[in-house]
UniProtKB/TrEMBL annotation:
<keyword id="KW-0812">Transmembrane</keyword>
<keyword id="KW-1133">Transmembrane helix</keyword>
<feature type="coiled-coil region">
    <location>
        <begin position="1355"/>
        <end position="1386"/>
    </location>
</feature>
<dbReference type="GO" id="GO:0098703">
    <property type="term" value="P:calcium ion import across plasma membrane"/>
</dbReference>
<keyword id="KW-0677">Repeat</keyword>
<feature type="transmembrane region" description="Helical">
    <location>
        <begin position="1168"/>
        <end position="1188"/>
    </location>
</feature>
<dbReference type="GO" id="GO:0005216">
    <property type="term" value="F:monoatomic ion channel activity"/>
</dbReference>
<feature type="transmembrane region" description="Helical">
    <location>
        <begin position="1094"/>
        <end position="1112"/>
    </location>
</feature>
<feature type="transmembrane region" description="Helical">
    <location>
        <begin position="1055"/>
        <end position="1074"/>
    </location>
</feature>
<dbReference type="Pfam" id="PF00520">
    <property type="entry name" value="Ion_trans"/>
</dbReference>
<dbReference type="InterPro" id="IPR024862">
    <property type="entry name" value="TRPV"/>
</dbReference>
<feature type="transmembrane region" description="Helical">
    <location>
        <begin position="1209"/>
        <end position="1227"/>
    </location>
</feature>
<dbReference type="GO" id="GO:0005886">
    <property type="term" value="C:plasma membrane"/>
</dbReference>
<feature type="domain" description="Ion transport">
    <location>
        <begin position="1071"/>
        <end position="1308"/>
    </location>
</feature>
<dbReference type="InterPro" id="IPR005821">
    <property type="entry name" value="Ion_trans_dom"/>
</dbReference>
<feature type="transmembrane region" description="Helical">
    <location>
        <begin position="1273"/>
        <end position="1299"/>
    </location>
</feature>
<keyword id="KW-0472">Membrane</keyword>
């Protein structure tokens, strides 16, 4: 048993769980919770079952003391050391060594002051503030991994008794201490850089002022002084220079609290609200219109107004006023941090607003835009809280620390960001190299230490202080990453991720005076003009040693080689690049480019020392396009082996690939790929070019279509492609260093939405363009290392594709059936939509089970994007693209959310998804769901046809084709062909248009449905199988389905005709001739009587056997391909059995003639069976002819009418035959009782059935009725048969057939297309592979349609737009009605529940 102030908990020992000592373990997954106020006794029967994690069992007792006991007084994080203060002790935990060290003091520790001691942000010590006002300093160790030491030389003290300590919320490096002297006077002191500054007079402090922590969007505001008496709030900031020891404080603004004209509903004026609450933190809203003031219990929401600047107001400095203050009670937020002006992290006690005590996160806008009851808080972790309100934010490490319980302190990353700081990472300039392997990041610093971090958590895993890989004496102390530039214009060539695999280091402290210039420069050192000096000899230069190193996965540093090289100064452009095989070096000097080849030295005795190499010039490359090269620090113009480079031929206005060694042209890049055109900036085109390998390059166009091509082929054959989602290339035009593939426009940690978009783009490209499917490779995309913070000057961070906060929300969607997504701010949902979680899942993967979540989710996103578009239009924002997509991707198991819906038979959610996917751009999801298309057809989703037609989309290139004469073939009114997503414009023009005809307005469109039009793809076969079996005839009325069928039909028709129809024509003619001329089994002609006819019969028999085997072979092939599905088609039986029967009949005929000549066949053959089989074969052969009539447009739909009518008659025929059996039985009883000559109904049951059937369809023979045993009864039944069968049943049959005919005739075109789809599905196996391949050469090609626009089509589109708008309004109204009903029902339910609780409580007390 365990208890707290409110509940008693009971638990049982686990059954069958034995620990190491042989005793039963205790488990508390299930326990009993008993309310002490509601129950008068303790027992299992009066408690409620509750699940509780075993490790939280001890939390229960903490509830008794948490509001009274505060053990820890302060904590702070400095690099890899965590400080905790309790009583008179400060304990320091070393994260790397995992060791604690305590420091003891004579006074109680009041607080820990994180203190910057120099100009460098990372050089910190910790000031220990004692209760008597003393500040004792704990200094960092002089050497790495040493112990912190207590400073005994610096003695600091704050006057008076300490009341409040407030630190700046940015770096926690400036501290403000409010104390009170013995005479009651208050004193404000500032502590910074080991110096205490008296700020009392500076801020004009009064005894009525209260010091309040301040967090506002204005990063300069450090603290507030709240004067309740004068109703004034003043904000202050520290304006001292970073290198100044003395703190200088100035006022930012002064806010006057005035009373409103009308009191609020709580009947309290503003002064009373302020007086009743001891404010501990004030938070400013992002728009600076609200000031949220938090006390330990309540929230004061103050609306800030700009005060009119009268002369008096200007004199006293009143710039703002607060007229309206809203009191929101029972929040119980004990401490909080606001980060990025949006996200509020807090420790809250139990309250009606926040819920259970714990560590919370919520959007700051929820405090302002909604009522307190609807505050969208999210409890990240259960915590004790109470008096334990320590919550600190460490900006440098991007971590938050909070008290979880009395024995646990948690340090967690910022859960709303996608970036993770690496704990203990020092400033960037202290490191020489970084390398990422899988989920680990290695970093080598100048002291030779190799530190390992986890990329997924940011934790330090290991630190090697000595480098075992380098077993020679030379250290890295004097080396730095090679860069050529100044502080104003830094060179980041080897600081970004481009060359993170290997790093070039240089020692600029040691000028090599003995460098052999003559050997290096050769003839360039001497002038050809005699006494004159060469340009090289006059250049100012120094000679340094360079080292080329690499961090290996074995946690070793490997030096590939070292070399000596001239350096021409920081203000001279000089960049060095190495080939992927490290055999060549490229040097860029201003307008000179030199290619070197490595020359290895002679082998030395010590093989462990890396070679010291020399470089030999092999080419001075001329005419390098320097204007292209200046757009990035990456050597992107040259191939990885440096032997090819990209150039631009200005005279011909084309890009070319050249050989580096001789400058010869290697390959011309088609103008369709890289075409700057007239007057366009070629640099902008070059920024979208990338070498993937020595043979493959990748380019991207303005539509965001990326294309990988093989430059070894003449026409630069396409290898892969993708359409990058949500791509905005405006930054390429604005910024100089802005290469699309290398330079990220995102350089700040808090650009969460931008980072998520970029991550989605990278993941999409990796999945489709690079073809990555291995989980490890994909995880390397989801978890990356970002070197670009503050333009490669800031610390390296881990960059993920999701935030942990939104991941938690997504998981709740999965297992909470009625998850209330309305609680969350629209901006939060927008961020949630962009997350790609582990295992490649998106939010739709988690929400696919809950229909209302999907509907709400899409509606919020659409409304939010719509508002932003309208706002951009209102502000005339030309740069706002308005593009927003919800990632729709396959997870690591190859499933999209749509896959999960279809597999789970959740067709309503699937229909909503495809309805929303209608608006997605080209190639955004088509390849992810193409394998699902057959199942979608089988599911007959209502929105499927609309979705298919919505996939007719245009690119910018297609929109450029406005007029032309479309080539029409195959009787179609439009042109249909295949094309790459990014085709060559000239080739496309030849493919689609007839230049000799009169042109008209045209429209070219891609059909964004992959693979279904290709005969070589299995998905195409499966898709047409589904179409042929589909009962949704309306689907064939959609232009998209018709286009796919029109494209595949000519080839299917050709080979069905060649391989089946024409041979069948001969087959049928021979069979008819043989059957009629030779009577199948009779033999009127013998070898002796008529030799020619005898021979002709044998030839016909041979041909029949040949054709039978031929058609049976085709059927066997079809059986093998289709498996058991072969048995589901009626036409397959019509194809199979005639050939079998003909083989049997002809074989028997030949046996008779060759082996039983002269004998009577009736003696050894059942002539009845043989004749029946021959008859059946004749019938099936002619029936099979109907199958081939389906090929032709004029007869195809008529055959369909016949088959559909028979299908529609099925139920009727059952009833019809049942009635016939009934009348036959009645006739049979009367007939068999009559005389033999009076049996009018035949001699047996079968004859009687035939007689009754003939009577039912109009044969009125009644000659023997009067001779029967009961003539009157027979005549009565006869009349009844005529009335029911001839009048009722046959007219009903006519009505059914008429209705079927009418339905099919109205949709004859759809019927024709379905017949064609069936033939394509059945007979695609007949087409040889080479024809399939030539019909659609590449599965990555799309269907392209070109059609002439009608005169009124533009008007129709406008009408359609208006109608769509009306439909949107109607849908919105219906959704509003539904939400209103749900809200009303929920409100009624809550009211009823509260009434029931009140009644139950009253009854209980009574």
């Amino acid at each position: 048993m365990e208890m707290n102030s409110k509940y008693i908990y009971l638990k049982k020992k686990g059954e069958g769980l034995i620990n190491e000592e042989g005793e039963e373990k205790e488990t508390v997954e299930n326990c009993i919770e008993i309310d002490q106020d509601a129950c008068q006794r303790i027992g299992e029967s009066v408690g409620a079952p509750r699940e509780l994690d075993p490790h939280k069992w001890h939390f229960i007792i903490y509830d008794l003391i948490r509001n009274h006991a505060r053990i820890y007084t302060a904590m702070t994080l400095v690099n890899v050391n965590f400080f905790v203060a309790f009583n008179q002790v400060v304990a320091v935990y070393d994260v790397v060594r995992k060791e604690w060290k305590p420091y003891f003091f004579k006074q109680q520790v009041f607080g820990l002051l994180r203190n910057q001691v120099s100009d460098h942000m990372h050089e910190l010590n910790v000031g220990v503030l004692l209760e008597n006002g003393e500040i004792r300093l704990i200094d960092p160790p002089p050497v790495r991994n040493g112990d912190w030491t207590l400073n005994s030389t610096i003695n600091l003290k704050v006057q008076g008794k300490i009341k409040t300590v407030v630190s700046d919320w940015r770096d926690i490096a400036s501290h403000y201490i409010l104390s009170q002297l013995e005479n009651g006077q208050q004193v404000l002191s500032g502590f910074q850089r080991n110096v205490i500054t008296d700020l009392t007079s500076t801020v004009v402090l009064t005894n009525d002022d209260a010091l309040v922590r301040c967090i506002t969007p204005n990063e300069q505001e450090d603290f507030l002084l709240l004067n309740r008496k004068d109703k004034i709030i003043r904000s202050f900031c520290n304006t001292a220079a970073r290198n100044s020891d003395k703190m200088i404080v100035s006022r930012c603004r002064k806010i006057k609290i005035v009373e409103p004209e009308k009191r609020s509903e709580d009947e309290l004026d503003n002064a009373q609200k302020i007086e009743a609450n001891a404010i501990h933190t004030a938070v400013g809203s992002k728009d600076d219109k609200y000031l949220l003031m938090f006390s330990k219990h309540d929230l004061l929401k103050a609306k800030i107004e700009i005060q009119e600047q009268t002369a008096k107001a200007k004199k006293v400095g009143n710039s703002h006023k607060i007229k309206e203050i809203t009191l929101v009670k029972d929040f119980n937020i004990q401490s909080l941090q606001v980060i990025d002006s949006d996200y509020c992290y807090s420790l809250s006690n139990e309250s009606s607003k926040q819920g259970r005590p714990g560590f919370y996160i919520q959007n700051l806008a929820s405090f302002i835009n909604t009522t307190a009851k609807e505050t969208s808080n999210f409890r990240l972790k259960a915590a004790v809280v109470g008096q334990n309100d320590l919550l600190d934010y460490y900006k440098d490490d991007q971590r938050i620390a909070f008290i979880l319980s009395y024995d646990v302190i948690r340090i967690v990353p910022l859960l709303h960001r996608t970036v993770l700081g690496f704990i203990g990472m020092r400033p960037r300039d202290e490191y020489l190299a970084f390398r990422r392997f899988k989920d680990k990041l290695y970093a080598l610093d100048k002291l030779g230490a190799l530190t390992t971090w986890s990329v997924t958590t940011g934790k330090v895993l290991e630190q090697k202080t000595t480098n075992t890989a380098l077993n020679y004496s030379e250290s890295f102390a004097n080396y730095e990453i090679y860069q050529n530039g100044t502080k104003e214009k830094p060179d980041i060539t080897y600081k970004s991720e481009w060359y993170s695999q290997r790093t070039l280091l240089v020692n600029k402290t040691d000028n090599l005076v003995d460098f052999n210039q003559e050997q290096f420069y050769g003839v360039r050192l001497n002038s050809e003009l005699g006494a004159n000096s060469s340009y090289v000899s006059t250049m100012e230069k120094k000679f340094f040693k360079f080292r080329y190193i690499e961090i290996l996965e074995s946690q070793e540093v490997y030096e590939h080689f070292s070399f000596d090289h001239p350096y021409y100064g920081d203000d001279k452009l000089q960049r060095l690049f190495f080939s992927d095989d490290m055999q060549h070096m490229l040097e860029r000097q201003e307008q000179n480019v030199i290619l070197y080849q490595k020359v290895l030295p002679l082998k030395t005795a010590d093989s462990t020392v890396p070679p010291h190499v020399a470089w030999k010039i092999v080419s001075r490359i001329k005419r390098v396009p320097f204007d292209l090269a200046e757009c990035t620090f990456v050597n992107y113009l040259f191939s990885p082996n440096l032997l090819k480079y990209l150039d631009y031929n200005k005279s011909q206005k084309i890009f070319v690939i050249k050989n580096s060694l001789d400058g010869s042209e290697y390959r011309r890049i088609p103008s369709g790929l890289m075409n700057p055109g007239d007057g366009k900036d070629i640099t902008l085109v070059g920024k979208k070019f990338q070498w993937l390998s020595n043979n493959y390059v990748r380019v991207v166009n303005n539509d965001g279509i990326e294309k990988t091509v093989d430059i070894t082929t003449t026409d630069c054959e396409q290898i892969s492609y993708c359409s990058v989602p949500m791509l905005d290339m405006e930054y390429l035009k604005k910024e100089k260093y802005s290469h699309y593939f290398y330079d990220m426009s995102i350089t700040k940690e808090n650009q969460t939405i931008e980072r998520l978009k970029r991550k989605y783009q990278e993941y999409f490209t990796a999945y489709f363009s690079s073809g990555l499917r291995d989980h490890a490779d994909l995880y390397n995309i989801l978890f990356e290392v970002d070197f670009n913070i503050d333009k490669c000057q800031g610390k390296v961070v881990a960059d993920t594709s999701f935030t942990y906060f939104h991941w938690k929300i997504a998981e709740l969607m999965d297992y909470i059936p009625r998850f209330n997504i309305k609680r969350y701010h629209p901006e939060e949902i927008k961020v949630l939509a962009l997350n790609i979680f582990p295992q490649g899942k998106t939010v739709l993967h988690y929400a696919q089970k809950n229909l209302h979540i999907i509907q709400r989710f899409y509606r919020v996103i659409e409304n939010e994007v719509k508002k932003q578009k309208e706002l951009a239009a209102l502000n005339d924002d030309q740069e706002y693209s308005g593009v927003f997509e919800i990632p729709f991707m396959k997870d690591f198991n190859g499933k999209t959310p749509l896959h999960l819906c279809i597999e789970g038979q959740n067709h309503k959610s699937a229909d909503i998804m495809i309805n929303k996917l209608c608006n997605d751009p080209l190639d955004s999801h088509a390849r992810a769901i193409n394998d699902l298309l057959p199942q979608m057809v089988k599911a007959e989703l209502p929105s499927l046809g609309q979705y298919f037609d919505s996939r007719f989309l245009q690119t910018t290139l297609l929109k450029d084709f406005r007029r032309g004469a479309v080539i029409k073939e195959g009787g179609l009114e439009y042109r249909i062909t295949t094309s790459e997503l990014w085709p060559d414009k000239n080739e496309l023009k030849k493919q689609v248009f007839d230049t000799s005809a009169v042109d008209s307005e045209v429209k070219l469109e891609f059909l964004d449905m992959c693979g279904v039009h290709c005969y070589t793809e299995q998905i195409g076969q499966d898709f047409f199988n589904a179409l042929s079996d589909s009962g949704n005839l309306a689907l064939f009325g959609h232009r998209s389905i018709q286009a796919i069928i029109d494209f595949k039909w000519p080839l299917a028709q050709e080979y069905t005709t060649k391989v089946l129809f024409i041979p069948f024509g001969f087959y049928l003619a021979i069979f008819v001739a043989w059957s009629n001329a030779f009577n199948g089994y009779l033999y009127p002609f013998t070898k002796d009587t008529w030799y020619e006819m005898w021979v002709a019969e044998k030839v016909l028999c041979a041909l029949l056997l040949f054709f039978s085997v031929y058609f049976l072979t085709n059927e066997v092939r079809q059986m093998i391909i289709n498996g058991f599905e072969y048995l589901t088609s009626f036409w397959n039986y019509v194809d199979f059995f005639p050939s079998c029967l003909i083989i049997a009949i002809v074989s028997i005929k030949l046996k008779i003639q060759f082996f039983n000549e002269g004998e009577d066949p009736a003696d050894y053959i059942d002539m009845y069976a043989l004749s029946s089989f021959h008859s059946l074969a004749s019938f099936l052969m002619w029936l099979k002819l109907l199958y081939f009539m389906r090929i032709f447009k004029e007869t195809g739909y008529l055959v369909k009418i016949i088959t559909e009518c028979i299908k529609d008659m099925r139920v009727f025929l059952v009833i019809f035959l049942t009635v016939i059996v009934a009348f036959n039985e009645a006739f049979q009883r009367l007939s068999e009782a009559s005389g033999e000559e009076a049996q009018f109904n035949g001699l047996n049951w079968a004859q009687g059935y035939a007689y009754t059937f003939a009577l039912a369809i109009g044969d009125t023979r009644a000659d023997l009725y009067d001779d029967s045993i009961a003539p009157a009864v027979v005549w009565f039944i006869f009349c009844l048969v005529l009335l029911i069968m001839n009048v009722v049943m046959l007219n009903l049959l006519v009505a059914i057939i008429s209705l079927s005919f009418e339905n099919i005739n109205e949709s004859w075109q759809q019927t024709m297309y379905q017949e064609r789809a069936s033939i394509i599905a059945e007979n695609s196996y007949l087409i040889p592979y080479y024809r399939k391949k030539s019909h659609c050469p590449d599965k990555d090609q799309y269907l392209l349609t070109a059609r002439e626009l009608l005169e009124d089509e533009g008007k129709d589109e406008l009408v359609e737009q208006v109608q769509n708008k009306i439909n949107e309004i109607e849908v919105s109204l219906n959704e509003f009605k539904k939400e209103y009903r749900e809200t009303q029902e929920e409100f009624s339910s809550n009211v009823q529940k509260q009434l029931d609780d009140i009644i139950a409580a009253v009854v209980k007390k009574v």
